[in-house]
Amino acid sequence: MKQPSILLDLAFLRLWTGATASGLATWALPFVLGLAVFDRALAATDLGLLLAARTAGFLAAIPVAGVLADRYSRRGVVLWAGLAAGAAAPVIAAGLDRSVLLMAAGAAVAGAGQGACRPAYQALTAEVVDADRRQQANAAMTLAVRVTTLVGPSLAALLAAFLDTWALLVGIGLLWLVAACVPGSGTRADIADRPPRGAAGGPGRTPFLAEFAEGVREARRHPWFLAGLGALTAVIATGYSATGVALPMVSRDEYGTEVVLAGAMTAYTAGALAGALIIARLRPRNPGWAALAGLAAYGFAPLSLVFPVHPVVVMTAYAVAGLGIELFNVPWFTAAQREVAPDKLARVSSLDFLLSYGLAPVGLAVIAPAIDAFGATWVLAGCAVVCFAAPAAAALVPSARAFSRPAARDGAP
Question: The pTM is what?
Answer without folding.
Answer: 0.84
